[in-house]
């Protein structure tokens, strides 16, 4: 099925991303203090979530990434349903290893590993009216990409006009640390798989068609995804 690119705008991000980003900038002191507190709170060796995922392990997976160009703070995993934690699962498919499968109905992204298994990530997806399905591929990849709001968004949100020439990469940038840009037949669809710094968005439909993973998950997927990788978006 062909993606309706007219319904996407400027990497398809939800219009709330701009306002949410204002609260995400952290100075190094608060970043380090918050990270230590978060890990300490969840570093209980015997604490296990109801679905068997160890909270201490999740705190490690979603811990701070201080060596990034813009240091990424730890995820507050209390704000993420444990079923959306990254894990390896059984997944039967005819798709080749390396293929990315997006399941918007269940808010998951899978990377096919072969032998009937996949790495599964929790995701946010398009809101009502912006869901789409079909095949695409990764046409290019970006680290800490510049984000430019479309004219349509600027008309709806005049405060975005200051970024008409582009918002530089950073923690407050809606595209986040890593972006996979999706193409069809040589043309950019305007849809992306991007890094979200909003843990409360995982498991919800909030975007204009793009798919967001927690920053730590997106960096994990990005490193394993070359350009030309096939992406399959299932019907919602």
UniProtKB/TrEMBL annotation:
InterPro entries: LD-transpeptidase (IPR050979), LD_TPept_cat_dom (IPR005490), TAT_signal (IPR006311), TAT_signal_bac_arc (IPR019546), Transpep_catalytic_dom (IPR038063). Pathway: Cell wall biogenesis; peptidoglycan biosynthesis. Gene3D superfamilies: L,D-transpeptidase catalytic domain-like (2.40.440.10). Keywords: Cell shape, Cell wall biogenesis/degradation, Glycosyltransferase, Hydrolase, Peptidoglycan synthesis, Transferase. Belongs to the YkuD family. PANTHER family: L,D-TRANSPEPTIDASE, L,D-TRANSPEPTIDASE ERFK_SRFK-RELATED. NCBIfam families: TAT_signal_seq. This is L,D-TPase catalytic domain-containing protein. The lineage of its organism: Bacteria, Pseudomonadati, Pseudomonadota, Alphaproteobacteria, Hyphomicrobiales.
